[in-house]
Design brief:
By secondary structure, the chain is mainly beta. It has a domain at 11-78 and 106-128. Helix content is 9%, strand content 35%. It is built from two helices and six strands; from the N terminus they run αββββαββ. The chain has helices at residues 11-16, 93-99; strands at 28-34, 38-43, 57-61, 65-78, 104-117, 127-128. Strand 3 and strand 4 form a beta hairpin. The longest helix has 7 residues, at 93-99.
Length: 139
């Protein structure tokens, strides 16, 4: 998935290791979804959830089609439900960096609107999205 934004992050983003979502930059991977509710994309660890906005247009690369959609929700996720009750030393940069992207991660919901086949034929063009990309498709 890519966001249509600036091509490179600023100095502050580079210094703290978190990059804003930029055009052409992979954002994450499809991990769940349905045609009705859209797909869930787990963000890569270097993508800042704070920089993604609801309503942003994104591209999802499926195995046979490219899907064009819009971000409908942004959430925080965790692989361990105990994390929200644990005392995590927020002043220890090493611990925070180890947890970000592995145990703690960002999620975005994307509702596909249009599809475009990877290989266009004479009569093929953009069409309403009536399916969703496979698991592990890049966003």
């Amino acid at each position: 998935m890519t966001l249509f934004d600036h091509p490179i992050g600023d100095a502050n983003e580079m210094a703290n290791g978190k990059f804003a979502a930029r055009q052409g930059q992979p954002l994450g991977m499809v991990v769940d979804g349905s045609v009705t509710n859209g797909v869930e994309v787990r963000l890569d660890s270097d993508v800042s959830v704070e920089r993604i906005k609801v309503g942003t247009f994104v591209t999802l690369q499926g195995s046979n089609n490219r899907f064009f959609g819009v971000v409908t929700d942004i959430a925080l996720g965790s692989t361990d439900p105990r994390m929200k009750y644990a005392s995590i030393p927020t002043d220890d940069v090493f611990v925070i960096q180890a947890l970000q992207g592995t145990v703690a991660f960002g999620m975005v919901s994307v509702l596909p609107q249009l599809t475009l086949p990877d290989v266009l034929g004479d009569e093929q063009g953009p069409a309403a999205a009536k399916s969703i990309p496979d698991h592990f498709s890049r966003a």
